[in-house]
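User: For my dataset I need records formatted as: sequence, then structure tokens, nothing else. Please produce one.
Assistant:
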Amino acid sequence: MTPSGNTTSFVAAGAIALTLVLGFATQGNAAIAAATTKVPDGARPMTAAELYMLYHGKSWRWPDGAGRMQNNDRRFSAWVDGTGGQSWAEGRWTVSDAGRLCFDATWHATNGQFPAKTCFVHRIYDGTIYQKRETGGEWFVFRHPVTKETDEAAKLIADDLVSQRLEAMKASLSVRKTE
């Protein structure tokens, strides 16, 4: 049972937000979603240090929001504002020498909150980074040796696209819950 007592609407809100989060790396670019790539045989998992250097202190722009990977305590925060409604998340991001980047956060919507863990696997070969979402994702070129404007990695930027919007969304959703 959820804090609001309404399991159906809570699950629906959670499913919408989770779909947005799980799809941000592959659904944000139609060309990526349409072009599954075979990872070369010699590709190796990226190390935790390589992943940290790629993601730390960056915001990842998504079609309907953004996520931020902070250096301090590896905090992860995000917001989504799409056709399914608004939600926000706070948690942690982790990397491993197996090439995994994971976001482990609690997502909040008007009708409740739910935990979600989303992981991506990374391989590298001759400077090209390949990525797929764990559990059912398709491999695609995340970044070419010389980053192209169409690379998903080009959506990782140093600007903080999350903090201001997150605070506003927290306040907005809090007001809606008490109405």
